[in-house]
Structures are given as structure tokens and as C-alpha cells.
Design goal:
Structural class: mainly beta
Low-confidence stretches: 1-17
Number of strands: 14
Distance between the termini: 62 Å
Helix content: 10-25%
Strand order of the largest sheet: 8-7-6-5-4-3-2-1-14-13-12-11-10-9
Shape: globular
Strand content: over 45%
Mean pLDDT: 89
């Protein structure tokens, strides 16, 4: 009985500690599925080079109820002439959106590497174990404890969908720290205004343009521009990606399982 009590107290301490990094989810539900067409800019011409999909379901991670989100990008044979793109991103977050786990397996050009991040919340702090398997096959581990919350690229995306932008003005910035398999860097989301975007499902949507930037060598670099639906779902309708080997775009081609009415669709 005493052992059971100790286990229960430890579980409650873990839940309390992770609460500092939690956030209310208003944007998605289990079963949401988004699909995209990928385009690459080649000599000023946009060429369709593959597909992407994002799927979010309620699952379990190490015995605790969690959201599981996967993002898979696959280039086709056309893309392989320019670059090889085979990325799989996976994350788990608690049901109140505290990061729990992150994994990225990336085959980009002639490089293949794997990133992992494991999150725990001892004594009200954020502890991360970071793991990277390099393109040379090296397995590298490190761990750090921070007073502030840190996020990976996919967990911050889930969290940001529930932000309330109603009072944002152009230029508004949200700052945070981003982690991957071997580093922690300052990052930000920057609001750039509204725009109507036509998706590849034949419909047009009112969107909010939000840029994701990471700080490298003392300067912020733009990584992705998200055009998210201007409604409670904040679904990415288009993504503009600024890659090492060029620029690419992803247009939404399909949508299933939205949590809220699609009020941003204009036609």
C-alpha cells in the first residue's frame, strides 16, 4: 500500500511539473488528417515533386494518454533528379500540449540523420535528453535541464495552432527556444498579416501568414512561412519552405476530421 502511495505521489508530481509547459487545445481533435502537394522551384518554374501528410490521433506514450502527430514528406522520381527528400517527423504531447517526445528521420540530398528528444519535468523544470544519429552513423547523446519550457518543431506547431491571434498586429512576435537532436536555439513566430490563398482542393481560404525563424550565427533565418486558416482550426493551407537546396511550397489537397467549422473558406 505504501509503495502504491509513493507511485501515485510521483505521478502527481510529474503532472504538476509538466503543467508549467501545458496549453489548452482549441484547434484540433483526434483523427484530423491533412494532405499536401509539394512543389519545387526549378529555374523560375514550380514543378510538382511529391506529397506530404499530417495525421493527429489520441494515443499513449509510456502508458500516459497523449496526442501523436506525424508529418511525412515524400519526393517523387522528379524530385530525386534535384534532391532526395524523405522526411518523417513524429511527436507526442500530453493532452494539455506539454511536449513529451520528438523524432525526425531525414533523408535530404546525400545526408541521412535521426534526431530524438525526450522530455520530462522534474521539480517544476524542463529536462530534455537529446539523441542524434549522424550521417556518419555516430550515436550522440546529451541532456540538459532548463527553468523555461523548450519545444521541438512539431510540438511548437501543435501548440501554436491554439494561439489566439485576434489582437495581433503585423510584426507581432512570439519567442521561444527550439531543440533538436544536438542543439538548443532561439526561435520565433512572426505575424505578417492576412492573405487569401487557393489550396489544391479547389477552395480558397482567408489565412494568417506566420513566419517561423531560427537564430543561427547571431542572426534570425526564415525557415517556413505558414498560411493558416483564419478560423478556430488554424489549419496550414500553404507552407513556403526555404531550404538549403532551394525553395519549396506545400499546398493543402485534402482535409478530414477538423475540430471546428471551416469558417475561413471563401469559395
Amino acid at each position: 500500500m505504501r509503495k502504491l502511495f509513493i507511485v501515485m505521489v510521483m505521478c502527481l508530481m510529474g503532472i504538476s511539473a509538466s503543467a508549467q509547459c501545458s496549453f489548452r487545445n482549441t484547434a484540433f481533435k483526434s483523427g484530423e488528417y491533412l494532405s499536401y502537394n509539394l512543389y519545387f522551384n526549378w529555374k523560375f518554374v514550380w514543378i510538382k515533386v511529391g506529397t506530404a501528410s499530417m495525421n493527429t490521433v489520441q494515443s499513449n506514450f509510456r502508458g500516459r494518454p497523449s496526442y501523436r502527430c506525424s508529418l511525412i514528406t515524400r519526393g517523387n522520381s522528379k524530385a530525386d533528379h534535384f534532391f532526395v527528400l524523405r522526411d518523417t517527423l513524429l511527436c507526442y504531447s500530453s493532452l494539455d500540449l506539454a511536449p513529451v517526445y520528438y523524432h525526425k528521420g531525414a533523408h535530404e540530398g546525400d545526408r541521412y540523420y535521426t534526431d530524438e528528444v525526450f522530455y520530462t519535468y522534474p521539480e517544476g523544470r524542463c529536462h530534455v535528453r537529446q539523441h542524434q544519429i549522424t550521417s556518419k552513423g555516430e550515436s550522440l547523446w546529451q541532456q540538459h535541464t532548463y527553468n523555461e519550457c523548450v519545444f521541438d518543431m512539431l510540438n511548437i506547431f501543435l501548440r501554436a495552432r491554439s494561439f489566439n491571434p485576434s489582437n495581433w498586429k503585423k510584426g507581432y512576435v512570439v519567442n521561444f527556444d527550439i531543440v533538436d537532436g544536438d542543439s538548443k536555439n532561439p526561435a520565433m513566430l512572426k505575424y505578417n498579416g492576412k492573405k487569401i490563398i487557393k489550396a489544391d482542393n479547389g477552395h480558397s481560404y482567408r489565412t494568417l501568414q506566420v513566419s517561423y525563424l531560427e537564430k543561427e550565427n547571431g542572426k534570425y533565418q526564415r525557415i517556413v512561412d505558414f498560411f493558416i486558416s483564419d478560423d478556430a482550426n488554424h489549419i496550414p493551407i500553404r507552407l513556403d519552405m526555404f531550404l538549403r537546396f532551394g525553395s519549396a511550397k506545400a499546398y493543402m489537397s485534402g482535409l478530414k476530421g477538423a475540430r471546428n467549422p471551416i469558417e475561413a473558406m471563401v469559395k
